[in-house]
Amino acid sequence: MHVRTLTGGLAAALVVSLSLTGGQAVAAPPDAADAPLAARVFTYDAGGSAEFRSAVDRGAAIWNESVDAVELRPAAAGQRANIRVLADNGWPRALPTTLGNGTVYIGRQAVDQGYDTIRISAHELGHILGLPDRKPGPCSSLMSGSTAGTACTNPYPNAAEKAEVEGNFDGVLVGRAPAARAEVIVD
Any idea which residues carry the catalytic annotation? Predict the structure, then answer.
């Protein structure tokens, strides 16, 4: 996972604004400008994902490797998860409730047709993180989904998709509440 840090410019702006408002400006320790900001943690429960459990864990790990603002962790025993992941016989889909929350279905229909389970998992988790489908699209776009074809096994978001997720959650790091979304995304 990447670690987001305050830049020196932001730290300097805070010191200047304190001095302008009459507060006492004190030089921050040299390491303060590099202090990590915590990612927004969302838990997931893949207990109902059956044979797709390892693909779901890998899809979550891919997002953790790809963005700074969000971390997806398995829910602890007895903990209510932000994201439920279930296996069923339909087509894969995500049912976001609010940004970072919802239900993902890893549908066996797409798997039976030859689509990659890790790509499916990462794609559907992308919907929970606020990304829409981008169809049609190339294999290099995770959110192109099924339009990239069964030969496409790329489970990684591209630079634009990463940036969009960072933007969706960046305000959470500085205290702004995320916008609520209620949509059904069927791939």
Answer: 124
